[in-house]
Amino acid sequence: MEIFRPYGFDRTLFFTTLALVAIGLIMVFSSSAILSNEKYNHPFHFLINQLVALGIGIALIFFILPVRKSFYQNSYFIYGFLIFSLALLALCIIMPAFGKINRSVQFLSLRFQPAELAKISLILFFSLYIQRNKDRLNEAKTLLFPLGILFLAILMIIRQPDYGTALLVFLICAMTLFIGGINLKYFLYTGIFSIAIFTFYLFRASYRLDRIFAFLSPSEDPLGSGFQIIQSKLAVGSGGLLGVSLGESTQKLFFLPCVHTDYIYAIVGEELGLIGALIILILFFIFLWRGLVISKRAPNLFSQIAAAGITLAIFSQALLNISVVLGLGPPTGFPLPLISFGRSSLISTLFGIGILLHISQRKSTSRKKK
Fold it and tell me: What is the CA radius of gyration of the chain?
């Protein structure tokens, strides 16, 4: 039995999300205005698109919150959502390439990256599967089906090509299985198989190897593969303690590529300084803390795993993105959640947060009595 408290959601998580989104809007405009004016003849193109995505995401949250029944726990919804996500991933491969990549499905002028949606659908699917098979979870035959679905999704994402997101999806699902109680020996077997797949695709594209070599020694090719890493460090380093002031970045003047997406944190460091960069990092740690608290207090196993999975997915992507910007990891190509420009990322992330907030409204009556 559960107690459902409409709009009794975790306020700290909600306002932390709003704070991150507000900073994101400011930084998207600051980092993209010049590029937007160059490409679209007005400085607000990227900001307007981000605001539209934010409106859809916030609407999803407030649509989910008052719903008494946890629809995201329904097996029909989960399997339908999973099939829909996988179908969109397959559709990406056959659709015309955009910028020599096939990461988006397009309808008229609207583009959406289904890999972002696949992260949430896989977390819900694994949560349901673990709950239903918790007594047989450490039998090899029980794991074949979910691992098959996982590797199918990963292979389709790699084919787009999006190696970084495929690796992130694998890590997210591995964390979900670990939380669910999978025996460590299966991680060893799965890890060996996964390393073989990722190594095979790593060597199939020379630019992926170039990124790794550039990370290890960016000065070897400062105008080529090491350019982004060097420029990103210059941006962060030039900000000092308080930054050069909002809007005054020089690296966004076409020196550092992807300043409004993958490398927006570098512009944060340059314009807002160490203080601004630390504020964002602290907000993500608060997000992690509240998400794990929600997971611990969730009324059933599904909700516990789903809440932890969504929290760790958002936090781990943020940490990996920040690590890349600071030169602590090779370029991966995914955005900083809630901060970077990206309609697909923002809508999918806010949808996941809506589920997380809904879980925080549900309490077990047995726990309350204790």
Answer: 21
